[in-house]
Amino acid sequence: MDLLDSIMSKMDRPPVISTQQKKLLKEQQKAAEEAKAKEREALKNFRKKVKHLVYNYITLKMILLDRRYGEYNNEFFQDSTRLKMPFEPMDRVGRSIVRDVADVAGLTTHVFGLEEDERWVMAFKKEYPLSEDELNAYRNGVDWDPDKAKEDALQRERQKKEEEERAKKLRKEPVPNKFLEKYERLVGKESGLKAARVLEANNKQFGFVSSEMKKDKRTIEETLADIKRAKKSKMSQETAKD
């Protein structure tokens, strides 16, 4: 017994764990459990997403492609009044599936919505007269009203015609002579015209120069040439005097 006690006393005792180490181990264990819980939740969401995508794909294929399911699933194609089909908002993969299936079915698709989780697809039949105005309305989140769009288009056309008529009228009308208008206001149109013409002729005869005629209408090249000739003439005169 003494020998056994002696041997046991010489053996290393298990290390003593401090309070800080215990706390650290507990935190690590908690983090590992949280990571496992997140992984389980991510896997659950992934399965749900895949299930949702497969369901959407099968439903769309039944609606758009497979003619074996009777008239109910082909209602969209058989109804000549239904020219477009909106789909609920979905993620990027879902939108890609919708566009692929619609393309095989001979439909045109456009994606609308600003935020990623709000983006949705609209499928149009080839014969649908899709306009840029309608596309812009959907892009801006506005409901498309064809009657209002017609009215707006007519209004724009009327405004365009009015502007063209106004521009044509301005081109046809002669530029008013302010000199003649002044006399027209004073003595009447006919008398004013006669008096203005007589006065204008007298001014020219007796040397009156209007401000319009006083304006220098020469080009820059003509002005420089005149200055050069004047300098040359002056230098010739000074040389002759010497």
Automatic annotation (TrEMBL):
GO terms for molecular function: nucleic acid binding. The gene is Spag7. Residues 18-49 form a coiled coil. The keyword Coiled coil applies. Signal peptide: none annotated. It comes from Armadillidium nasatum. Keywords: Coiled coil. Residues 152-171 are annotated as: Disordered. This is Sperm-associated antigen 7.
